[in-house]
Design goal:
It contains 19 helices and 21 strands. The protein is α+β, with helices and mostly antiparallel strands. The longest helix is centred in the middle third of the chain and has 21 residues. It is globular, with a radius of gyration of 22 Å. The two termini are about 25 Å apart.
Length: about 525
């Protein structure tokens, strides 16, 4: 139980429906959809569309999404891959012939065809009660009328002024600078694009004037994209089989590769074979174990994780108990591994921005939803007539012939965004997620163990300090106790205080025994959990 004399948040309790998102306006939108007869999936799509307007550094219709949906009474988890693909002309031969050995995060070559809009339409047609014509209306109004910029959004926006200028995104620099907290920002061009999607569906985004604007913008910057690439993506979202692991009596579900949800299950599998850390949830040994498990699984990610439609990803081997036990045996409670192969650490592009949200409705349907431009403002390239900021998800490709994640025509890149879902006894109990690019597998496994192993409440589990092994060091938030930092250093880690906090989480616990919903939301963002 939290100390009520200290700053903090309490968990949110409700009975009929609950939403947790990174912005209050999006949370309220989700609840309004629920109260108007929509289900959890409808509410999630409406909320994420609002986030695409008011949290533009993190997400947009020019990005990708993934979703896990647990329809009540089915005992199943439905997974959808809404990630986009490289242009049809993007072959390694093309890049090698021009002496291009690496992608730049602000280049048109880092832009994959956005998958989010196709995913939204695919989801609501298959499992929703409402259509995009109704669900996009709140976002359209906000884009047309404007909305006050939130503090965390303003903070991130100011850090990206140079990127926006480079990408020709002058509409996002009113009066020549990033808006401040409280300034009202509108995107009338995006409002009109969303109106077209509401009237005519995803085809209005992938064909016609909107697609032509995006393609022309990219071609002017040297991109290989064509209108045919965009037209081919209108039905590009795919329902896929989730990957799962039984951990401490719970069935944890993730989307399969090309996403990195597999890493969450690997970390849980490695750590789950150990007793709880003797120094507890906030101790150095607990943090050290997590760091070591992360180093091991990220090494494997950079060796194996890619588009399974293009290469074989050895999911079964990586999740086998024999393999997880062999990795667990490498971890010592007294010292960091010094001879760990670190081939991937220096190649991880700088992480961060995404939005994650979750919704549970009165029927027990649970939705775990994530939508992203990848880095802040994606590529920074704005298609001016349509108001669409374009992602830089292609920055996850390698220009290394023979590598599983080497760029190829119509191939999906390795993806960082991952929604999570926990089931028990065939019923959803916890849609959850943690934003933050490459940090997400660490963040999800850290949150789950905080909550389900060490017994923190759902809000405390999100609030607790975070650590992340990155580029040969361990990035620690300023809230990590000094004693823990000193102990990690003594074990052989190289702690470094991170400039930005790690990620942002949302979660909803479905307490079937007591008939209530319990939620937490991220204090590192402008988020809000709310129910009725």
């Amino acid at each position: 139980m939290r100390d009520f004399q200290l700053p903090g948040r309490s968990p949110v309790y409700a009975t009929h429906g609950m939403a947790a998102t990174s912005m209050p306006a999006a949370t309220l939108t989700a609840l309004e959809v629920l109260r108007a007869g929509g289900n959890a999936l409808d509410a999630a799509v409406a909320a994420v569309a609002v986030l695409c307007v008011i949290e533009p550094q993190s997400t947009g219709i020019g990005g990708d999404c993934f979703c896990l949906y647990a329809p009540a009474g089915t005992g199943k988890v439905v997974a959808l891959n809404g990630s986009g693909r490289a242009p049809g002309a993007a072959s390694i031969d093309w890049y090698e012939s021009r002496g291009i050995g690496a992608l730049e995060n602000t280049s048109a070559h880092a832009v994959t065809v956005p998958g989010a809009v196709s995913a939204w339409e695919t989801l609501v047609k298959a499992h929703g009660r409402k259509g995009l014509d109704e669900l996009l209306q709140p976002a359209i109004r906000i884009a047309a009328d404007g909305w006050p910029v939130a503090p965390r959004v303003a903070f991130d926006w100011a850090r990206n002024e140079a990127k926006l200028r480079q990408g020709g995104s002058l509409a996002f620099l009113p009066n020549g600078a990033a808006p401040r907290a409280g300034d009202r920002f509108a995107n009338p061009a995006l409002a009109e694009t969303m109106r077209l999607i509401a009237r005519h569906g995803a085809r209005a985004f992938y064909e016609g004037a909107v697609a032509a604007d995006m393609v022309a913008t990219l071609r002017q910057r040297g991109g290989l994209h064509t209108e045919e690439d965009f037209a081919a993506a209108v039905d590009g979202a795919d329902f896929v089989d989730p990957v799962t692991l039984n951990w401490k009596g719970y069935d944890v579900y993730e989307c399969p590769p090309n996403g990195q949800g597999l890493l969450v299950l690997m970390m849980l599998g490695i750590l789950g074979g150990m007793p709880s850390a003797p120094d507890g949830v906030a101790g150095a040994i607990r943090a050290h174990r997590h760091i070591e498990a992360a180093r091991l699984v990220y090494r494997d990610r950079d060796a194996f994780l890619a588009d399974p439609g293009a290469v074989d990803v050895p999911v079964g081997k990586l999740l086998s108990e024999a393999y997880l036990a062999s990795q667990r045996a490498l971890i010592s409670d007294v010292a960091a591994l010094r001879d760990l192969p670190a081939a991937g650490e220096s190649l991880l592009p700088s992480h961060k921005d995404t939005v994650y949200l979750c919704v549970v409705d009165q029927d027990g349907n649970a939705c775990s939803f994530i939508n992203s431009l990848f880095q802040s403002f994606g590529s920074g390239i704005l298609a001016p007539r349509s108001g669409v900021m374009l992602q830089n998800r292609g920055f996850g490709f390698r220009l290394e012939r023979g590598h599983p994640n080497c760029i190829a025509p119509r191939k999906r890149p390795m993806h960082t965004i991952i929604p999570g879902m926990v089931m028990k006894g065939g019923r959803a109990v916890l849609p959850f997620g943690v934003m933050g690019g490459h940090y997400q597998p660490v963040g999800q496994s850290w949150f789950l163990t905080n909550f389900l192993e060490y017994g923190l409440d759902i809000q405390e589990s999100i609030d607790l300090f975070r650590v992340f092994p990155y580029a040969g060091k361990v990035e620690v938030e300023r809230t990590v106790p000094d004693a823990v930092v000193r102990e990690l250093a003594a074990m052989g880690h190289v702690p470094e205080v991170t400039e930005l906090p790690h990620g942002g989480g949302q979660a909803i616990w479905i307490d079937h025994d007591r008939g209530c919903l319990v939620a937490g939301s991220e204090p590192r963002k402008d988020g809000l959990a709310l129910g009725y």
